[in-house]
């Protein structure tokens, strides 16, 4: 017959073997029971993680404020059958406060987080690159480095490129003919030449295509100097490109303020 001491050591060993650390950003939270929350993280090394944070809705919780959306945290978790459990959380980037104080930043962050959740999964493939992109975008939003809608559209284009759907806004996306070109097709991958242009392709202004190329490459001098008209047209093309490849609507985009 096994002693209680042996049983306790076995339980402790099992608990330790299931414990791991992760650096993650909070994408979404759900209420669970009276005091708990389910937190959806995008982590640097483990992909998307869903975990229970017990007691975080109580006023006495020591790390409830650290697990709000758009915060980046250093986590200790215990792997579970369906959901992991958060046992420790230390703040790395308190971006949520600066974002929540401004409606334009908040709606852009919501669209960024929803897209990141759609583009990533639990296998960790390319999670490091996607993690760096979203943290960079949230940091820029919280500090007000650029207009929120420009940060959003730049993030969306880069995230899609990292996921394997890199658009082209200079050379023809289908045949590679040097551009710039005056037609845009989301199914074909961006700008297209007259020979490759399909029926129904959009005909954006050259300034809008230049802005899209700047947002993808991180040319903020050109992006910040763009006109409201170019930003609106470019945003529509980004949204169509995003939703074509995701094959679903990103609901948060409807709430984003556009100049």
TrEMBL record:
<feature type="domain" description="DNA replication/recombination mediator RecO N-terminal">
    <location>
        <begin position="19"/>
        <end position="92"/>
    </location>
</feature>
<dbReference type="Pfam" id="PF11967">
    <property type="entry name" value="RecO_N"/>
</dbReference>
<dbReference type="InterPro" id="IPR003717">
    <property type="entry name" value="RecO"/>
</dbReference>
<comment type="function">
    <text>Involved in DNA repair and RecF pathway recombination.</text>
</comment>
<keyword id="KW-0227">DNA damage</keyword>
<comment type="similarity">
    <text>Belongs to the RecO family.</text>
</comment>
<dbReference type="Pfam" id="PF02565">
    <property type="entry name" value="RecO_C"/>
</dbReference>
<dbReference type="InterPro" id="IPR042242">
    <property type="entry name" value="RecO_C"/>
</dbReference>
<keyword id="KW-0234">DNA repair</keyword>
<keyword id="KW-0233">DNA recombination</keyword>
<dbReference type="InterPro" id="IPR012340">
    <property type="entry name" value="NA-bd_OB-fold"/>
</dbReference>
<dbReference type="InterPro" id="IPR022572">
    <property type="entry name" value="DNA_rep/recomb_RecO_N"/>
</dbReference>
<dbReference type="InterPro" id="IPR037278">
    <property type="entry name" value="ARFGAP/RecO"/>
</dbReference>
<protein>
    <recommendedName>
        <fullName>DNA repair protein RecO</fullName>
    </recommendedName>
</protein>
């Amino acid at each position: 017959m096994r002693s209680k001491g042996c049983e306790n050591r076995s339980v402790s060993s099992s608990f330790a073997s299931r414990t791991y650390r992760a650096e993650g950003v909070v994408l979404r939270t759900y209420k669970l029971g009276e005091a708990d929350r389910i937190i959806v993280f995008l982590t640097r090394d483990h992909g998307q993680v869903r975990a229970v944070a017990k007691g975080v809705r109580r006023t006495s919780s020591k790390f409830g404020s650290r697990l709000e959306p758009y915060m980046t945290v250093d986590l200790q978790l215990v792997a579970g059958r369906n959901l992991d459990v958060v046992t420790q959380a230390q703040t790395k980037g308190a971006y949520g406060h600066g974002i929540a104080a401004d409606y334009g930043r908040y709606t852009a962050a919501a669209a960024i987080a929803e897209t990141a959740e759609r583009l990533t999964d639990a296998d960790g493939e390319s999670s490091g690159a996607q993690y760096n992109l979203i943290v960079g975008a949230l940091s820029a939003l919280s500090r007000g480095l650029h207009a929120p809608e420009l940060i959003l559209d730049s993030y969306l284009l880069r995230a899609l490129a990292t996921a394997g759907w890199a658009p082209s806004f200079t050379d023809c996306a289908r045949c590679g003919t040097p551009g710039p070109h005056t037609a845009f097709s989301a199914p074909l991958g961006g700008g297209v030449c007259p020979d490759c242009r399909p029926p129904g392709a959009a005909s954006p202004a050259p300034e809008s295509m230049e802005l899209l190329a700047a947002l993808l490459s991180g040319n903020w001098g050109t992006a910040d100097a763009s006109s409201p008209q170019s930003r609106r047209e470019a945003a529509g093309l980004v949204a169509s490109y995003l939703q074509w490849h995701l094959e679903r609507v990103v609901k948060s985009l409807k709430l984003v303020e556009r100049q």
